[in-house]
Specification:
Keywords: Membrane, Transmembrane, Transmembrane helix. The protein contains four helices and no strands. By secondary structure, it is mostly helical. The chain has two domains: 72 residues, no CATH class; 60 residues. The longest helix has 36 residues. The radius of gyration is 21 Å and the shape is flat. It starts with a helix and ends with a helix.
């Protein structure tokens, strides 16, 4: 790892440690804050992971651009298309069925999540399969 990546990793670990210590110390006063952390933590985790993935991809693209190897041939077959279609239709269905499995009713948020996942997968299908 480079020095900046090591620093970034240590900084994030320190930030998480400080947050946990403050949360444990002020637990009674921070119940509302704890509820907000539970609500927003998936957003922060996905945003952080997305940022790390984007940085990694930018480094790969920069390296490939320096070597003039940006074009890549991809072979797509019917089995890959079938797996993508399976994920396209089953993922929103599973998201909608999870509350029912745990004896709850699907809420508007659950429906919204299923719609967003479906639209993202449709967009990926358009990107990868438009020529087929």
């Amino acid at each position: 790892m480079k020095q900046t990546e090591t620093f970034l990793t240590l900084f994030v670990c320190l930030l998480i440690t400080i947050t946990v210590v403050i949360y444990v110390y002020f637990y009674d006063q921070l119940k509302t804050f704890g509820q907000l952390m539970v609500i927003f933590s998936p957003i922060f985790i996905f945003a952080f992971a997305g940022t790390l993935i984007a940085r990694r991809d930018q480094k790969i693209i920069k390296r490939l651009r320096q070597n003039n190897q940006l074009s890549k041939t991809v072979e797509l077959n019917w089995f890959l298309a079938f797996k993508h279609d399976l994920a396209l239709y089953l993922t929103p269905l599973i998201i909608l069925l999870l509350p029912i499995i745990f004896d709850q009713k699907p809420t508007l948020i659950t429906i919204f999540q299923a719609i967003i996942i479906y639209l993202v997968l449709i967009y990926l299908r358009y990107i990868y399969w438009r020529e087929i």
